[in-house]
């Protein structure tokens, strides 16, 4: 089924847009797809469509709406990278997490959503997926190469539902020291699973990106798929 833009309400009554993709059956567990710094672009919509094809009700919220609604850029030009980093610098993380909670709550109320609701995020979204595990009622969360998680490890005690993180060994935005801090802070947590991808750079799972690696992306996506199958069934 083709995806469509829908309206999501915040707890203060404001509204923002999300891209909704439904499975062929029209029903399934929910997955919130959390954007990178390029907005709800084709990459994110394709990911939502992929989850829908796997039987999930996938919803990708526009988390940059407070700065500029409707951002949809690529990673293909220097100008777009500059715009993306500018958006990243302006982004209000706590407000973004609240928008993710609003998106989760929206999915839970939909008749199409038959089971639990999880979250999966990439880059900036990887950090937000971690924070979804500490600050929202997401039933299971997955973060790909999250940026800045090491600065939020004091929240690890709040994780009560399953969390999986994919860590790129040569991530230019999450260096060796940060990776070591993440492992030290989370390895012993009973609800957290960490996977390392030696030799991989940031965004190794971004199809079409400069650091895309098919084998690593396939492995990470399979692990995510198995994780969601285990934790999001009705």
TrEMBL record:
SUPFAM superfamilies: alpha/beta-Hydrolases
Keywords for the protein's UniProt record, in alphabetical order: Hydrolase
Coiled coil: none
InterPro entries (alphabetical): AB_hydrolase_fold (IPR029058), Dienelactn_hydro (IPR002925), Dienelactone_hydrolase-like (IPR051049)
A molecular-function term among this protein's GO annotations: carboxymethylenebutenolidase activity
Domain Dienelactone hydrolase: 17-231
Pfam families assigned to the protein according to its UniProt record, in alphabetical order: DLH
Membrane-spanning parts: none
Keyword Hydrolase: yes
Known EC number: 3.1.1.45
Record's protein name: Carboxymethylenebutenolidase
Organism, scientific name: Oceanibacterium hippocampi
């Amino acid at each position: 089924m083709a995806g469509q833009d829908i309206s999501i309400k915040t707890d203060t009554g404001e509204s923002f847009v999300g891209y909704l993709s439904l499975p062929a059956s029209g029903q399934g567990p929910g997955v919130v797809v959390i954007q990178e710094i390029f907005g709800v672009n084709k990459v994110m919509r394709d990911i939502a469509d992929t989850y829908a094809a796997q039987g999930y009700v996938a919803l990708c919220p526009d988390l940059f709406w407070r700065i500029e609604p409707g951002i949809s850029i690529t990673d293909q030009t220097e100008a777009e990278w500059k715009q993306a980093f500018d958006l990243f610098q302006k982004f209000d993380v706590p407000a973004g997490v609240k928008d993710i909670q609003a998106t989760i709550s929206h999915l839970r109320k939909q008749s199409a959503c038959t089971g639990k609701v999880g979250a999966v995020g990439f880059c900036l979204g990887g950090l937000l997926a971690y924070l979804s595990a500490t600050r929202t009622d997401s039933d299971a969360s997955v973060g790909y190469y999250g940026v800045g998680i090491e600065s939020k490890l004091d929240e690890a005690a709040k994780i009560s539902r399953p969390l999986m993180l994919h860590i790129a060994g040569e991530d230019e935005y999450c260096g060796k020291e940060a990776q070591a801090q993440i492992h030290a802070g989370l390895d012993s947590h009973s609800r957290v699973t960490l996977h390392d991808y030696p030799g991989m750079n940031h965004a190794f799972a971004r199809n079409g990106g400069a650091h895309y690696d098919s084998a690593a992306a396939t492995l990470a996506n399979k692990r995510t798929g198995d994780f969601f199958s285990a934790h999001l069934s009705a």
